[in-house]
Every structure is written in structure tokens, then in C-alpha cells.
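note to self: dont lose this again. the chain is below, predicted strucutre after it. 189 aa total, dont forget to put it in the shared folder this time
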Amino acid sequence: MRFIGLDVHKDLCEVAVVEGDACWSGPRVRSTPEDLEVFGQSLGPEDQVVLEATGGALAIARILERYAGRVVMANPIAVRAIAAAKAKTDRLDARTLAKLLAAGFLPSVWLGDERTRLLRRPVSRHAQLHQAAYPGQEPDPRRAPAHPEGAPSGERTCSVSAAAPGSVTRSSLPTSARPSRPASATSSS
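---
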């Protein structure tokens, strides 16, 4: 069984392989889909690949998971805490990832299936828009968005809901059209 570590960059991936007691650096692989497909074809069902969860790593993982037995996205913060080294190079980072995977000490990130990734996109986009509009302020998921200029107070201008498209939910109705709650539900004992 081979454990392959990839240190991912915008243009290339540094490759390291651990097999048994041996550890060596492999050739660099360009980070293009075509080159990653060729690299993936060299993997087998027993191979395990690890890469840090950085910007383009998810797309690379999706390509390689068709070929390798297991693809792991490593939590970059936890990996840095475990592998605090004085000498830092891309080649050494790839080797460290491969060694940590082989030893079973790798803190991984849950990837989710395709449906989960599709559901994450609007949430991620909302967070990006909030960050652009309110730099330095974290969004509070428990609160409705602030009322844009000109929106009537007490009404929402949009609603994000897991309900079926076109359905009406309590939170998507104007305040005046919402059904009232029973007194027992609003009072606290």
C-alpha cells in the first residue's frame, strides 16, 4: 500500500510517496485537470492520497478519488500544529503529509457527497457577500439579514429555506401576514 502526499499550489503539486519503510519524492505534477487525470491513472485501488484543504484542493481531490482507494483532505491548521518543523519546503511538506497519513496521525476534513457540496455553495456565497459588505464582522446565522435601504421595517426582502421551491414558509411572509402563535408558545414559565 502506498501513501501519497500532495503539497498543492496554483500551478503544480509536489508529490511524495511512502511505501513500507521507504519515503521518496515523486515528480511534480502540474495542477491542470489533464495532468491530474494522467497522474490519477498511475494510482491504484490500494493507494491513499492526502492533500491539505486549501483553495484548489477539492477540485484535485474530486479528480483523484476516481482512481485512488482513498483521498483524504487534511485540516491545514491541525497539520501545521503537528508538523511544526524548522525546515519548511514544499517537498518536505508533501513528505510530512504522506508520513502522517501512513502513521494514522492525520486530522482530516469531512468532504461530504456531491449533494452536500451543492447545498454548501449558496451558504458559502452568502458568507462571502456578507464579508464584502461588512468587513471584519462575522455573520450571525440566527438573525435575518439587515433591512436594505427602502425595505419596510418588519418585513424580509428575501428568504433562504430548505422548503420546496415556490412553497410559502412562515419566515418568507411579511410580518403582517404571519399567523400568530398561541400565547402558550410565546410565554416562558
